[in-house]
Amino acid sequence: MLNKWQNKLLVEMSWWGMEGLAGSAGPAATLEQKFKRIADSGFDGINAFVPKPEDSGQWKEQLDRYNLSFSVNAYPASLGDMSAFIEKAIEFGRVDYINAQVMKPFLTGDEALTLLSGIDALSRHAGIPIFVETHRGTITQDLIRTRQFLETLPELRLTIDYSHYVVAGELHTVSPEAEEMLQSLLPHASSIHTRISNGEQIQIDPGERGEHPMLPHFARWWESAMRHWRTADRLDADRFPVVIELGPPPYAITRDEAGARQEELGDRWKQALFLKQLVRQLWHKGLQ
Questions:
Q1: How far is Cα 110 from Cα 90, in angstroms, rounded to an integer?
Q2: Residue 86 needs a FRET pair 20 to 30 A away by CA distance; which of 23, 56, 111, 117 works?
Q3: Full-model pTM
């Protein structure tokens, strides 16, 4: 019998992560080539942006051709920003959910709560899920502050990207106190962005077989987020999206740090495929 959660996982590829790929990826310069590579490599969808009106037809054609899900990123600093973005998403008409980096890193207290609760209210009114990402340089850049937000706003839906907290907290070792804090956010996870930090760099190579010592920590957090999501009440149409998001240089570590910063140390496409496989393994492990 098919487990009811079997097809609830969506593994999406970051469009940003397709920039400047080298190594095993080979050339994929055009929009059509990128779509084909993503689909042929077994991804379920794409995480990108709302296409410009003049490009909308081409994007819809490719999404239909390859039967891919589609999510977008927003960078609101106000409720007006968020409302205007939602209108663009509705106009495009193919957006499954919005990942929001709320660009108010120094907003605290009641003002921050008002902004976050307003974004959640806009989301529910429009009928488009909005997940607030845990990200440096945004309203959620502080792990302790984000936990406090959730005490007042327990319905707030998060995209979990713990690479930001690991590097910001220099967590090259994870203490019991840090583990407890990080675990406390995971019941609120509606999505995950996969990136592994070693506590000193934001994005590292996990190794061809996942031998990096930080990988077990991230795998544990991802699996825990998945488990929490499955225990909540869900609609038939609900899906749990995981975005494989490995940024191009200078986000990726490069050999030529003092130069053009384009010579990557690792094979980013190979890493993306490894993480895609790992995410699916973690999801199906929880179904056994």
A1: 30
A2: 111
A3: 0.96
